[in-house]
Write a structure and sequence with these properties.
- This protein is of the alpha/beta class.
- It has three domains: about 1-85, Udp-n-acetylmuramoylalanyl-d-glutamate--2,6- Diaminopimelate Ligase, Chain: A, domain 1 (3-Layer(aba) Sandwich), CATH 3.40.1390; about 105-310, Mur-like, catalytic domain (UDP-N-acetylmuramoyl-L-alanine:D-glutamate ligase), CATH 3.40.1190; about 320-465, Protein-Tyrosine Phosphatase, Chain A (Alpha-Beta Complex), CATH 3.90.190.
- It has 17 helices and 22 strands.
- Strands 9-10-8-11-12-13-14-15-16 form a nine-stranded mixed beta sheet, with helices on both faces.
- Helix 1 (about 5-10) crosses helix 4 and helix 5 crosses helix 10.
- The radius of gyration is 24 Å and the shape is globular.
Length: about 475
């Protein structure tokens, strides 16, 4: 519950009209505002949430509005609490900051170019063995979603795990100023959203804006570029993880890939545990190590870490294995950048190689959509993907979008072009063979999930059963 006094003291606002003294939640969407909510209309380049205030107040108990709006509004606010501030987004941030400041439990922030969401979920699962954890929901990792996540904490929360995303310099600094994390998990540095940064060095600098805020840094020692940056501004406590780096504090060894998951050993100092996980792909070993390191840093015993990792089911649309139409699909459609695309293709290649070693003939098929927000690097990045498909023995490439057409031109094998994911599904229906391993991946805007959701593919699956 948020009291009107807490809102006023946190935001420096003034009451224009007073009714409700307590609010059960915060809403920024008039369509989902409900009784007891405090509605905060946000403004963007092409919209003004104040335009929907009347609709929101049909349900919500009150609202925070800008001074400029309050001075010109002719709305009747009878029966609703209205608090006036200079800037409504700033008010949202101030509320979240005040809520965080009143929280005494550990706050873990997950940053990096790839693997943030899965790492956040694994970290939450591991810490959940000891604490009541509140975590980022879905992709609520920006300057609106993260504050809302903090404000949804209830009094039972004992640990907070937040995913922080960045599109441009300054984003992580802004989010940390609100959330005040004490621990950072830094997954890697890659070419995610490079259009907003201009260079890979700026990407690293932006992710490492978190360093002045934290006491403990947990970082990927196998990423030399990241490690160099972290060690140049060390936190009070440093905990590294990795597979190749023998000096990593938390290491994985004896990795064994299986059809329905992986088995590996986690080593920390003189202790080790054998872990079996349902997750596929070498990159998920790193995600598990990051979560394990977070648990270790907060004093969890190895056996609790092991149990949490083995019970973790995975995250929808992120390297999920689906059997359909007589084929195996690697459903990794949530998003894509050059680093994550390369890792997904390696997993496709590994699965077909492993099948060949056991005497099974399985064809590697890649259905890939454009990687967006790469700016100047977009052309080269897509050509490199075409070359990687060649190197790793992919036999059929369905390229979706104008940028992936560049990848197809760099690919010497058989490629087919599609303008949309729906067209790709139609092509795939005619090309799919029993036993194929099919990778589906692309940036969020390409809607690559439509391939697996297509009635065409689902009808084929029905007939294959």
């Amino acid at each position: 519950m948020l009291t009107s006094d807490f809102v006023l003291s946190s935001t420096g606002g003034k009451i224009l009209n007073s009714a409700a003294m307590e609010f059960s939640g915060i809403s920024t969407d008039s369509r989902t505002a409900s009784a007891g909510d405090l509605f905060i209309p946000l403004c963007g380049d092409k919209f003004d949430g104040h335009d929907f205030l009347a609709d929101a107040l049909k349900s919500a108990s009150g609202a925070i509005v800008s001074r400029a709006y309050a001075e010109k509004s002719g709305l009747d606010f009878t029966g609703r609490t209205i608090i006036v501030v200079e800037d409504t987004l700033r008010a949202l941030h101030d509320l979240a900051h005040a809520r965080r400041s009143a929280f005494s439990g550990p706050v873990v922030a997950v940053v990096g170019s790839n693997g943030k969401t899965t790492t956040k979920e694994i970290t939450s699962a591991v810490l959940g063995a000891r604490f009541r954890v509140h975590r980022t929901s879905g992709n609520f990792n920006n300057h609106i979603g993260m504050p809302l996540t903090i404000l949804k904490m209830d009094s039972s929360t004992e640990a907070l795990v937040l995913e922080m995303g960045t599109n441009r310099p300054g984003d992580i600094n802004e989010l940390c100023s609100i959330a005040l994390p004490d621990t950072a998990v830094i997954t890697n540095i890659g070419f995610e959203h490079i259009e907003g940064f201009g260079s890979i060095n700026k990407v690293r600098e932006s992710e490492l804006e978190i360093m002045p805020f934290i006491k403990t840094a947990i970082y990927n020692a196998d990423d030399n570029f990241l490690t160099e940056g972290v060690l140049s501004r060390p936190a009070k406590n440093m905990l590294s993880y990795g597979i190749e780096a023998q000096t990593a504090d938390v290491r994985a060894a004896d990795i064994l890939f299986q059809k329905d998951g992986m088995q590996f050993r986690i080593i920390y100092r003189s202790e080790s545990i054998d872990v079996w996980t349902k997750l596929p792909g070498l990159f998920n070993v790193y995600n598990c190590l990051a979560g394990a390191a977070a648990g270790i840093s907060l004093g969890l015993p190895f056996q609790e870490v092991k149990k949490a990792l083995e019970n973790f089911e995975g995250v929808p649309m992120r390297c999920r294995i689906v059997e359909r139409a007589g084929a195996t699909f690697i459903d990794d459609v949530y998003n894509a950048n050059p680093s994550s695309m390369a890792e997904a293709i390696k997993e496709l290649s590994r699965r077909t190689r492993q099948a060949a070693e056991s005497g099974q003939r399985r064809r590697a098929v890649a259905v890939l959509g454009d990687m967006l927000e790469l700016g100047y690097y977009g052309v080269e990045a897509h050509k490199n993907i075409g070359k990687l498909l060649d190197e790793l023995g992919v036999e059929l490439f369905i390229a979706v979008g104008p940028l992936m057409e560049l990848a197809a031109q760099a690919f010497s094998g058989r490629s087919l072009l599609a303008d949309t994911s729906e067209q790709a599904a139609e092509i795939l229906k005619n090309e799919l063979k029993q036993g194929d391993v099919v990778l589906l991946k692309g940036s969020r805007g390409m809607k690559m999930e439509m391939v697996l959701e297509s009635p065409i593919i689902n009808e084929e699956a029905k007939n294959a059963i």
